[in-house]
Design brief:
CATH topology of the largest domain: Creatine Amidinohydrolase, Chain A, domain 1
Distance between the termini: 64 Å
Keywords: Aminopeptidase, Hydrolase, Metal-binding, Protease
GO molecular function: aminopeptidase activity; metal ion binding
Pfam families: Creatinase_N, Creatinase_N_2
Strand order of the largest sheet: 4-3-2-1-5-6
Number of helices: 12
Radius of gyration: 22 Å
Largest sheet: 6 strands, mixed
Number of domains: 2
Number of strands: 13
Helix content: 25-40%
CATH architecture of the largest domain: 3-Layer(aba) Sandwich
Structural class: alpha/beta
Protein name: XPP2 aminopeptidase
Family: Belongs to the peptidase M24B family.
CATH class of the largest domain: Alpha Beta
């Protein structure tokens, strides 16, 4: 009886037909649609991470692309899809969970090493093939690791700014957050946002490279800087945003319709001037950064939270 109950709990792809537990998700149609989209873009392998554009540890439903595509809901994993194969890499915390949630379209790879993903891709994709990913979902460091893993192999790492999973997910993808972004009460704030801005500008002055701007991509960073909170990600007091802080200006990229009136007032009390926060649409960060770096500027950023997509907008 013990063996039987174990069997009813996890998938068995060796039988005909394969046995799937009731917790497994049928991904056949999703994979077929993704493969069609990949063919249209000339992509031989597509890498899907378990992160959002801010390298957040926890995700909003809208950003759970790996979960939607595979059925696997663990917090850490990477999926790779080719025209005839699909594999999921995850660590030992999640092996049993993956065997309960994946259907037999997916191979489970019991490691998270990028070298392992690279070797699998080299076997699955012939020389001359394109390996693609969304550059706005991979940190600078992670992109570098993939680049290294495929270097000199005859396979091209090809960034595609259109997210192919989002294209397939279509209208079923959950909508963006719409709840209010609010100011923290003063009794909970260590220092005002103006003091924090002054502190960062002082660090810029003292830095050996003399940066003219700081780019903040981590959601905690912007929430901390402006003493603002939201609930765009369950159980996390953050909201989707970027900040570009220069010596004379402050740009906050956010859905400004969601800012509470008091929050907006606090940010814009000193306008115009160097302590005036200019509100820009969240989606405008790429265009704004592209425009800013046309000048003789030096941008200071963190490699951990900044995506390769934003990094590559900035000239060397």
């Amino acid at each position: 009886p013990q063996a039987a109950s174990a069997r009813s709990d996890v998938r068995d792809c060796s039988t005909d037909p394969p046995y799937l537990p009731p917790t497994a998700i049928n991904t056949t149609a999703r994979l077929a649609a993704l493969r069609d989209t990949m063919r249209a873009h000339g992509v031989h392998a597509y890498i899907v991470p378990s992160t959002d554009a801010h390298m957040s540890e926890y995700l909003a439903e809208r950003d759970s692309r790996l979960g939607w595509l595979t059925g696997f809901t663990g917090s850490a994993g990477t999926g790779v899809v080719t025209q005839d194969k699909a594999a999921l890499w995850t660590d030992s915390r999640y092996w049993t969970q993956a065997e309960r949630q994946l259907d037999c379209n997916w191979e489970l790879q019991r490691t998270t090493w990028i070298q392992s993903i690279g070797l699998w891709i080299l076997e699955a994709v012939p020389a001359g093939g394109n390996v693609s990913l969304d550059p706005f979902l991979f940190s600078i460091d992670t992109w570098g690791s993939y680049s290294q893993a495929l270097h000199g192999s005859g396979r091209t790492l090809l960034p595609i700014e259109t997210n192919l999973v989002d294209q397939v997910w279509g209208e079923q993808r959950p909508p963006p957050a719409s709840s209010e972004i609010y100011s923290l009460p003063e009794e909970f704030v260590g220092s005002s946002w103006q003091e924090k801005v002054a502190g960062i500008r002082q660090q810029m002055e003292q830095h050996i490279r003399q940066p003219t701007a700081v780019l903040l991509s981590g959601l905690e960073e912007t929430a901390w800087l402006f003493n603002l909170r939201g609930d765009d990600i369950p159980y996390n007091p953050v909201f989707y945003s970027y900040t570009l802080l220069t010596k004379t200006s402050i740009s906050l990229f956010v859905d400004e319709r969601r800012l509470a009136a008091a929050a907006r007032q606090a940010l814009q009390a000193a306008c115009p001037g160097p302590l005036c926060v200019e509100l820009q649409d969240y989606e405008q960060v790429r265009a704004h950064l592209h425009h800013y770096v046309q000048g003789n500027v030096t941008v200071w950023l963190g490699t951990e939270y900044t995506t390769f997509g934003l990094y590559s907008i900035i000239p060397q």
